[in-house]
Write a structure and sequence with these properties.
- The structure holds two protein chains of two kinds.
- By secondary structure, chain A is mostly helical.
- Chain A is built from 14 helices and two strands, in the order ααααααααααααβαβα.
- A two-stranded antiparallel sheet of chain A has the order 1-2.
- In chain A, α7 runs parallel beside α10 (187-216) and α7 (103-129) runs antiparallel to α11.
- By secondary structure, chain B is α/β, with parallel strands linked by helices.
- Chain B has two domains: 4-224, Rossmann fold, CATH 3.40.50; 229-286, 2-Layer Sandwich (Alpha-Beta Plaits), CATH 3.30.70.100.
- Chain B is built from eleven helices and 14 strands.
- Chain B has helices at 48-55, 77-80, 99-109, 114-123, 139-151, 169-184, 196-202, 220-224, 237-246, 265-274, 289-304; strands at residues 4-17, 20-33, 37-41, 63-68, 71-73, 84-87, 157-161, 188-192, 205-210, 213-219, 229-233, 250-254, 257-261, 281-285.
- In chain B, the strands form three sheets. Chain B has a six-stranded mixed beta sheet with strand order 6-7-8-3-9-10, with helices on both faces. A four-stranded antiparallel beta sheet of chain B has the order 2-1-4-5.
- In chain B, a hairpin with a 2-residue loop joins β4 (63-68) and β5 (71-73).
- The chains are: A mainly alpha, B alpha/beta.
- The A-B interface holds A 3-4, 6-7, 10-11, 14-16, 125-126, 129-131, 133-141, 314, 316-317 and B 53, 56-60, 74, 77-78, 81, 86, 88, 90, 92-97, 101-102, 104-106, 108-111, 149, 153.
């Protein structure tokens, strides 16, 4: 089994399309990090001078009528210039908590998509080229072949996602340190945890896509199914009468954020304030814990995986 | 080593199609003796490749039993697969990898040292081109690479499906020599081919299938031995025909001469001489596998119509 996994890792390393996708797993988050760092950069002296020059009439108006700008007349001379500069730059300081709700989701999403593509490209190629039959002529124990490929795909996906996510959050933390910005207690740990859960999600998605490709025996068919699922989730999800606990996006949020809340319909009587207080059924939010989200996606991967292994063991190989 | 390298009994494969069930292999009893080169002949769609794919575990039989090197397959296939090399239909490798990389992936999966790859590459004449991408190979080079892959295992049984497809004449000759050499060295080779002359030249025994059924099997001599005919040229064909027919021999006409079925040409000479009919030519008509095969498969077509 170990030798088979090693062979699959070599096959993965020699597949140019897979290597490019893994490279994209580094490049895309790096670009997101660069964009985040740039968008939250401190305002430089040169920028202040330039803005003050171009916005001089606005600053003068503020100084003439400071109350209209919410500025105390006593502080108008200094505060008006600061206020106008803030407006013009509209930049917020880098914050790990804010990035967990923003660029962090982007990084996790990019890793999920790219690693799914890598997994389906890797498995699909064996079927498209017909080399699967050749492999089975050398190693006929199909379950082992399936498992060796799965271990290689999932292992590489997990390692890549963990390394990239960790590097992403450590980079942002390092930049905050360099900028002397305060980091909330446990902020780094929470961000690293967010990254690790995102990495787990990406690895599971890669495993699911691999299993689906081995089941459908085609990269195109797998991508079609995944796109259809994505379309249904994003476009139809909100309009279908499905409880939030079953919505794919809510479950993703539960995994990434270590639990989340979803909204439920409450009885009309709850809108009467006198009766609503203290009644549990009048709380329109419910908790969706991490384990529920993990079970939701884990269960899907297990189902697809089981169907994939059974099919691979029983069906004729072209 | 068992007496039979390959044995099937009542092997059957059905495919479900929209039009119903199609029988690809119908209760085939195949027996390939150990050692030598065995031809596996049949027209397109006769079930040769399906049979090979079932033997190698790529397709599941609907019913029947199979044995490879004495072991029941597919149950014990993992136990014998390291002794079986096979090329099924066209060569199938990753097009973006080099020939060498493709072989390395296969050799490492069975724990064969990388040096063995160099040896088999040289054996099939791919030295110097093994680091080119597979997709840049000609059909002949792809065939050579596929044969190289089968040799990675140092097999006791080689199953080759149309191995000379796409090769140039020199390549065909080389591969035939290789197959002959392997057969002579004790490796059993099952050679599926539509080139009947190839089978006749290379094989010691053969099996002929049609519509998934066994039509004939035996050594090449046995298969061809069923009909011994002689070409006979005489001045008076009518008299000779009458005399031979009266003696109970089957006589026909071919290319302006008589064709007589007999295994005793001396008796024919004596018989005609006694009637004062003197021969100007008596030569054996060589039976070939092609005519035997065509007769057999035509009869099978007729029977299944």
């Amino acid at each position: 089994m170990t030798s088979l996994v090693r062979v699959e890792l070599t096959r993965l390393r020699w597949r140019r399309a897979v290597v490019l996708l893994l490279l994209a797993c580094v490049v895309v988050p790096a670009l997101i990090a660069a964009g985040t760092i740039w968008d939250t950069r401190p305002v430089s002296e040169a920028e202040i001078v330039e803005i003050q020059a171009t916005a001089a009439p606005e600053i003068a108006r503020c100084e003439r009528r400071p109350r209209q700008y919410g500025v105390s007349p006593a502080r108008a001379e200094t505060r008006c210039a600061e206020l106008v500069v803030e407006w013009q730059t509209s930049r917020q300081d880098l914050s790990l908590a804010r990035e967990r709700a923003g660029s962090g989701i982007g990084v996790a999403g990019a890793l999920v998509v790219l690693l799914m593509l890598a997994a389906t490209t890797f498995a699909g190629h064996d079927w498209n080229s017909g080399s699967m039959s050749n492999q089975l002529l050398f190693r006929p124990r199909r379950a082992r072949v399936w498992a060796a490929k799965a271990v290689a795909v999932t292992g590489v996906a997990l390692l890549t996602a963990v390394a990239v996510s960790t590097a992403y959050w450590l980079t942002l933390w390092g930049v905050m340190q360099a900028r002397d910005l305060p980091v909330a207690d446990g902020g780094l740990t929470a961000s690293l945890g967010f990254g690790l859960r995102g990495a787990g999600l990406a690895a599971a998605a890669a495993l699911g896509c691999y299993a689906l490709t081995m089941l459908l025996r085609s990269t195109v068919a797998t991508l079609g199914v995944v796109l259809a699922f994505g379309f249904a989730t994003l476009v139809l999800g909100g309009s279908l009468p499905v409880s939030g606990q079953w919505e794919p996006l809510e479950n993703i949020a539960a995994v990434l954020n270590d639990g989340t809340e979803y909204y439920v319909d409450i009885p009309p009587s709850c809108y009467d304030g006198r009766y609503a207080q203290g009644r549990a059924e009048c709380d329109d939010t419910r908790e969706l814990p991490l384990w529920r989200g993990a079970t939701y996606y884990g269960g899907a991967v297990v189902l697809v995986g089981a169907a994939s292994v059974l099919s691979f063991r029983r069906r004729d190989v072209p | 080593m068992p007496d039979l390298a390959i044995q099937t009994q009542g092997l059957r494969k059905e495919f479900r199609t929209r039009r119903g069930t199609r029988v690809a292999v119908a209760d085939l009893d195949l027996a390939v003796p150990a050692g030598g080169v065995h031809g596996f002949l049949g027209p397109n769609g006769s079930g040769k490749t399906t049979t090979i794919r079932m033997l190698l575990g790529l397709a599941r039989p609907t019913s029947g039993t199979m044995r490879l090197l004495g072991e029941p397959v597919p149950e014990r296939l993992p136990a014998v697969v390291d002794r079986v090399g096979a090329v099924v239909e066209s060569p199938k490798f990753s097009p973006n990898l080099t020939g060498r990389q493709n072989l390395l992936l296969l050799s490492r999966s069975i724990g064969v040292p990388d040096t063995r790859v160099d040896a088999v590459v040289e054996t099939v004449g791919l030295s110097g081109r093994d680091r080119d991408r597979y997709k840049a190979y000609s059909l002949g080079m792809k065939q050579r690479l596929a044969i190289a892959a089968t040799l990675l295992k140092e097999p006791d049984l080689l199953i080759l499906d149309e191995p000379t497809n796409g090769l140039d004449p020199a390549g065909i000759r080389e591969i035939r020599e290789t197959i002959r050499g392997l057969g002579a060295s004790g490796v059993t080779v099952l050679l599926s081919s539509h080139i009947l002359a190839e089978v006749q030249q290379v094989c010691t025994s053969a099996t002929i299938v049609g519509h998934g059924r066994l039509l004939a099997s035996g050594t090449v001599e046995e298969l061809l031995g069923g009909s011994t005919a002689y070409r006979l040229v005489v001045p008076d064909q009518a008299a000779a025909r009458e005399a031979l027919a009266a003696a109970g021999l089957t006589v026909g006409e071919e290319d302006g001469a008589l064709r007589v079925e007999t295994d005793d040409p001396v008796a024919v000479t004596r018989l005609l001489g006694a009637r004062d009919i003197w021969l100007s030519e008596l030569s054996p008509l060589r039976a070939d596998l092609e005519s035997f095969f065509l007769d057999l498969t035509a009869a099978d077509q007729e029977a299944t119509r």
